Amino acid sequence: MRKLNIYTVVISLLVLSGCGDFLETESLSTSTVENYYKTPAEAYAALAGCYDGVQALWSGGVSFPVASEIFSDNAFGGTGNGDGFGYQMLDEFDKSRSPSDLSVFGANWTNYYKAIYRCNILLAKLDQVTWGTDETLKTTYEAEARFLRAFMYFDMVRLWGNIPLLTEASAENIPQADPEAVYAQIAEDLKFASENLQAITYANQPVATHGRVTKWAAEALIGRVYLYYTGYYQKADLAGVVTKAQALAYLEDVISNSGHGLVSDFANLWPAASVENYAGEDNQETIFAIKYSYTSDYTSGNDDGNKWLVMFGLREFSSYPYGNGWGGATVNSKLWNAYDDTDTRKVASIISIDNEEIDFNKIEAQREYTGYYVKKYTPMINKDGKSVSAEEAAALGLNTDFQISQFQDYVVIRYADVLLMAAELGSGNAQAYFDQVRQRAYGTSFSQIPVTQESLMEERRLEFALEGIRYWDLLRQGIGVAADAIAETTQVLNGGVSTTKQITAAKILETKGLQQIPNAQISLSSGVLKQNTGW
Questions:
Q1: pLDDT at position 10
Q2: Torsions phi, psi for 462 (to 5 deg)
Q3: CB within 10 Å: which end of the chain, N or C, has fewer?
Q4: What distance in Å separates the CA atoms of residue 416 and residue 413, rounded to the nearest whole number?
Q5: Quick check: helix, strand or coil at residue 12?
Q6: What's the DSSP call for residue 534?
Q7: Ranges of H-type helices in 26-105
């Protein structure tokens, strides 16, 4: 049975009356900022609300993990052959593919700003809480809220490039900030979190706090933000806040002192790849994950499930242990072929219809069929053919189904990423860190290769395939590098019919890899918000 945690405490206590028209959302409860935030318990409830906001980021629209794979060279748009072409628009960076999709990320934009508002309100009200003997909690809660805010702004600034920067509730119709200002705020928030969260090792973290951010999560995310910002914007440091030496020092601290490590068998990181041998959520390799629960319920309105996971599933088809889904992000055969057959990550990451001898009979329902699907994140069924998540929920008498009750967590940062980032930033142990990741992948077939920028990027491609990382790794090497890697002309099956699929480098270059700002938000702002080039 899956345990509940802070994420499942749904605290809807925020009245969003001061967000400005273009960030307007409905009231979430009858509690107000005037009559709340007086006790540590109320502050904790508000913090739970911040985590719940993060959990709900992708409950509508296009999820960041799915979109990131579709943008990359790992996957195509996919989905049903009779569906609209919104995912093809994203995949090909071409709005003419679905001209009516003017706000494909509309729900995402709203959910990000809702969750950021929760963090901003909590941060603004910490001083009015009577902490008593719990004064240290104030700093801890501030650090957690600032981490969550930084995490969300990092998603947003990568997606859209130009976004309003709100660090307090405001009724102003503010314009988009310079990306450097957003990154400076992200860096400051993460530095504060890294310096004010306790350095509790993985083995000593209480089970009750799993899912809450840690010092190690803050330090690891600093490394990721540093590498992306300095790469994409061609800067020497992270917005004048974090230097290369400091970014490396944060990562080395995680490696030396966090107690995190690699799970011995790569397949055991993923439920569908290991089934009975799954290492479990909150395993030693997980540094930060977004938590989900099977307790979503149509009747009660409880909405804690991983709704986006179903998008990766086999189109309208189940084959133990893989459950029914919507066939989004069909895996590009280039990714399957990039792996050596001795690399255990190949079959642990990708479902191969032919190699696994799956009698898939829904090709006519699938758009951009390639014969390959995502294995790391996919709905699962038991041997009786029933949804694992729905069965868990049904045992509690909940009114649910597989579409809303998926509970696999999204692992944002793994320890393997910390090792490879530290190697990339020039650690004196770069070769050893690089070898650790590859030794697990190849086992007895391992042979050492020199650690170089080229070999590191290829290793990241194979290690983090289909985890929402590849696209951003490409972009930080330069728009031209990303465009060349993603552009291709190939054949796919649309409804079982061979069809030419084309992605042009010109479209990626035109958009600079950024996405469409929801047109509805531009309209609500009376034109204060400006659309990104190419959209």
A1: 36
A2: -80, -40
A3: N
A4: 8
A5: coil
A6: T
A7: 40-55, 64-71, 86-92
Token pair 């709005």 in the structure block, residue: 95
Strands 350-352 and 324-325, by their bridges, are unpaired
In this prediction, residue 30 carries a pLDDT of: 56
Note the helical H segments in 161-289: 179-196, 215-232, 244-257, 271-274
d(CA 155, CA 166): 15
Residues found in the chain: 535
The pLDDT averaged over each successive group of 10 residues in the chain (535 residues) is 39 35 42 77 96 95 97 98 98 97 96 97 96 90 98 98 94 94 98 96 90 97 98 98 98 98 98 96 97 87 89 97 97 98 98 98 97 98 93 86 93 98 98 98 98 98 98 98 98 98 98 97 96 97
Structure token pair of residue 445: 């077939």
For helices 135-160 and 215-232, angle between their N-to-C axes, nearest 10 degrees: 30
C-alpha gyration radius of the chain: 22
Which among 143, 224, 155 has a CA at the least distance from the CA of 188?
A: 143
User: φ, ψ for residue 208 (rounded to 5)?
Assistant: -65, -20
Residue 324, strand partner residues = 314
Closest CA to 327 of 495, 472, 93: 495
Residue 147 tokens, joined: 């981490």
Q: Look at residue 86 in the predicted model and tell me its pLDDT.
A: 97
109 contacts 60 by C-beta, under 8 angstroms: no
CB neighbours of residue 170 within 10 Å: 15
Q: Which residues are paired to 289 by β-bridges?
A: 411
* Residue carrying the six token digits 């290769």: 449
Using CA atoms, how far residue 273 sits from 208, 263, 501, in Å, is: 27, 14, 29
* Location of structure tokens 């008593």: 132
Residues 6 or more apart whose CB falls under 8 angstroms from that of 397 comprise: none
Contact present, 307 and 293 (Cβ < 8 Å): no
Among the listed residues 150, 158, 61, the one whose alpha carbon sits nearest the alpha carbon of residue 108: 61
The residue to which tokens 């690699």 are assigned = 262
Rounded CA separation 470/286 (Å) = 18
Residue with tokens 């579709």: 70
Q: What is the DSSP string of 306-346?
A: --GGGGGSEET--BTTBPEE--BSPBPHHHHHHS-TT-THH
Dist CA 282 CA 411 (whole Å): 9
Nearest to 266 by CA among 456, 451, 442, 445: 442
> How far apart are alpha carbons 378 and 321 in whole angstroms?
9
Cα separation, 65 vs 297, in Å, equals 24
Tokens of 47: 């913090």
- Our CA angle for 270, 211, 165, nearest 5°, is 110
